[in-house]
Design goal:
The complex is a heterodimer of chains A (172) and B (364).
Chain A: H1 2-49, H2 53-62, H3 68-80, H4 86-96, H5 106-113, H6 124-171
Helix pairs in contact in A: 1-2, 1-6, 2-3, 3-4
Chain B: H1 10-13, H2 18-31, E1 41-47, E2 53-56, E3 59-63, E4 69-70, H3 81-91, H4 100-105, E5 107-109, E6 115-125, E7 128-141, H5 149-157, E8 167-171, H6 177-190, E9 202-206, E10 227-231, H7 235-245, E11 250-253, H8 259-269, E12 274-280, H9 284-289, H10 291-294, E13 304-309, E14 316-322, E15 327-330
Parallel strand pairs in B: 8-12, 8-13, 9-10, 9-11, 11-12
Antiparallel strand pairs in B: 1-2, 1-7, 2-3, 3-4, 5-6, 6-7, 13-14, 14-15
Helix pairs in contact in B: 5-6, 7-8
Classes of the chains: A mainly alpha (172), B alpha/beta (364).
Chain lengths: 172, 364
């Protein structure tokens, strides 16, 4: 009885570990999607409202969940600090202080950092073009992350359960 | 002359690229108390590839790489394209896209009503100016305060009912029209009991955001307690809207010149509202030579003309005319001493050094 209970615990524990790993794999597409939502809000604020950048970034931050909200809020705060840093520097600062536990990869951050030299320094059409390009690249990254997650999630789950069973057989 | 002074240019320094800002701060420190005292600075000019230049009453100087004012351009700090771009970014609050209308007109307005003139490469679409790009020159014109200047000219402007005559203030650029107009608004709005003027409801059509110094919806200049400001709207449209919506006694606007401006003023005058405005011209004859403005001198329009000049510094009231009777009210005879109008201390024409000896640190 005790052996059966121990075996069940080992298999259950392994399955839980697999579930946690699978959840991490699913986070990246979700976080990339949140980034795109925030950027779309930014596009709207710039295109229709001609809203000043700090305020537009704050509004974008208010529309999404962590960690994308923190990125936009930090950029807005850096701009509002008024130390003459400029939008590019504020955006890079926000990217560099991103929570290391996000699922964003270095490649994702590089896509975002491509906005730094252009953010706020050109006319509306140019701003929209750059933001649209960034959105397209993020969308491609999300699709790629989604496909990888789809494959990885199944694999991680199967492997974790199988590993748990093997461990249970050997140990119990 | 008017007591025309700016609170000092320091409040605009934060809008310049850090390197330029440091030089300007040093130049302001070094010139304090001299002929080129920072309180008398009128313009700060950045030209990519050119010298950093400060214009003050009586001349200009170049700022050397150590911040010293210099009369030779080849000793000056050479402004880089990066300085201009960085300054423009700071001036636009990193939101250049939000200022497209201003770019099309060739200027921005900073908090405090300081106007920044822009030059660069024009981008045309369908034969019309779409925007300016590759901005290469910035000219920051420092807004000034003239405490009491409006009161000094008011005595010529009030009629027997205690209302202002329809008045046009004119001069070539840079002679203090906007500065005088701003103080006049304040006086009309607050009232001057000693002149028999009760406070009036004043509506300001502030197309360029210079009069109220509006910045993101907040006026930075005091225009009096009974003043409403319609900011950033084309003058003709703004005057019509103000007439309909704000029940003004006086409508004020700056730099009229387009046919539609004249038409809107004509309309306002036929509605029993008084109008005070400014225009670019060097003399009444030049005013009349402007086809768009000529119609305003044929009908019931402007009955008082004020010509400003720079004979004793920016804001010198050169002439005041009763245009209905074609009679000059001031000065009664040519160049007789008018009212006590004075310029910024340090801006008189005495040959004083740019940098007072006391401001130069001893070597070592």
């Amino acid at each position: 009885m005790l052996r059966a209970l121990a075996a069940a615990l080992v298999v259950g524990g392994a399955a839980y570990v697999g579930h946690v790993l699978a959840r991490d794999l699913r986070r990246r597409p979700e976080e990339l999607q949140a980034l795109q939502t925030a950027l779309r809000v930014l596009v709207t604020e710039i295109d229709y409202g001609a809203v000043p950048l700090p305020e537009a970034l704050e509004r974008a931050a208010a529309c999404v969940r962590a960690p994308a909200d923190k990125l936009f809020a930090r950029a807005a705060a850096a701009l509002r600090r008024g130390d003459g840093a400029g939008a590019g520097a504020a955006w890079l600062e926000a990217l560099q202080t991103t929570d290391p536990h996000t699922a964003w990869t270095r490649g994702d951050l590089e896509i975002l950092s491509s906005l730094a030299p252009v953010l706020g320094v050109s006319h509306r059409e140019d701003q929209l073009r750059h933001l649209q390009l960034c959105l397209e690249r993020l969308s491609a990254a999300e699709a790629e992350a989604g496909a990888a997650a789809g494959r990885g999630v199944r694999l991680v789950r199967y492997l974790s359960v199988l590993a748990g069973l093997a461990l249970a057989l050997l140990a119990v | 002359m008017l007591d025309t002074r700016s609170p000092g240019p320091h409040e605009v320094f934060s809008f310049f690229a850090p390197g330029v800002r440091r030089l300007l701060l040093e130049a302001a420190r070094l010139t304090a108390g001299g002929r080129a005292d920072a309180r008398g600075w009128e313009e700060i000019r950045l030209r990519a590839g050119g010298p950093l230049t400060v214009v003050f009453h009586g001349g200009d100087f170049f700022v050397a790489p150590d911040g010293h004012p210099h009369i030779r351009a080849d000793r000056a700090y050479c402004v880089t394209h990066g300085d201009v771009q960085r300054s423009l970014e700071l001036m636009s609050g990193s939101s250049l896209y939000a200022l497209e209308a201003e770019l099309r007109q060739g200027f921005l307005t900073l908090p405090g009503g300081h106007r920044v003139g822009l030059c660069g490469r024009a981008v045309l679409r369908d034969g019309r100016l779409f925007t300016l790009r590759d901005i290469s020159s910035l000219n920051v014109r420092l807004a000034r305060e003239t405490p009491g200047a409006g009161r000094q000219v008011l005595r010529w402007l009030l009629d027997q009912h205690g209302l202002p005559h329809n008045t046009l203030i004119f001069s070539p650029p840079g002679a203090g029209k906007t500065t005088l107009l701003r103080d006049l608004i304040r006086s009309l709005s607050a009232g001057c009991p000693d002149l028999g003027l009760e406070g009036l409801r004043v509506a300001v059509a502030d197309e360029r955001s210079e009069l109220a110094g509006m910045w993101q919806g907040v006026p930075r200049k005091d225009l009096g307690p009974r003043t409403d400001v319609l900011d950033g709207c084309p003058k003709a449209l703004a005057m019509a809207m103000l007439l309909r919506s704000m029940n003004p006694q006086v409508i004020v606007t700056d730099e009229i010149g387009r046919p539609e401006d004249a038409e809107a003023i004509d309309d306002a005058l036929r509605c029993g509202v008084r109008v005070v405005a400014t225009a670019h011209a060097g003399s009444p004859a030049e005013l009349l030579a402007r086809p768009s403005l000529r119609r305003l001198f044929n009908g019931p329009a402007f009955t008082r003309l004020i010509r400003l000049g720079r004979t004793r510094g920016a804001g010198t009231v050169e002439e005041v005319w009763d245009w209905r009777d074609r009679r000059r009210l001031h000065p009664p005879t040519a160049w007789e001493q008018g009212p006590a109008l004075r310029l910024v201390p340090g801006c008189d024409k005495q040959a004083r050094p740019l940098v007072p000896a006391t401001n130069v640190e001893p070597p070592g």
